[in-house]
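Q: Focus on the chain.
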Amino acid sequence: MVDARPTQVRRAAEPAGHAEIVRRTSLGMTMALLVQLALGIAVNLYVTVPARDQGGGTLTAIGRALSGGPVALALHAGLGLLILLGTITLLVRSILSRRGPLIWLSAVTLLAILGAVGSGASFVNSGNDGASLGMALLTAVALACLAVILFATGSAGAPPAAGSAAGQGNTSTGPPS
């Protein structure tokens, strides 16, 4: 007799889901922010922003930091812009994952990074220590959000949730025989 029950075909290797990409991006962003924090500390302690760079708006300050500032300041500003782009990517991937907590945490991370960029531009414009402190505190907020995202998305080696397609070893949809 022929078994006429429908069966599921297992797919070979499915690409990583959006939540997995969010997890990986969060880890990369965490590492980049730690490097950025170290660069920021070095700039704050050892670099004097030239007086000619002071004054102007946010975009002017970023341009001056990238083009005419000391090398450490240019690296700090350049990495900051890359982190900003990475955070936008993180938010888009979080939205695609359709997981509310990841979306909110990614949005707060983006807001913290935008605030840090604004504080950095303010620091270049005025040399105000409060702007440097604001940059550091907003970086800490972004790092905290990324840590929670990493916790919420689990690890790559974690077993799949019960009932998920990847976790079902039975290829038959009918009752066991």
Q: What stands out?
A: Residues 18-154 form one domain.
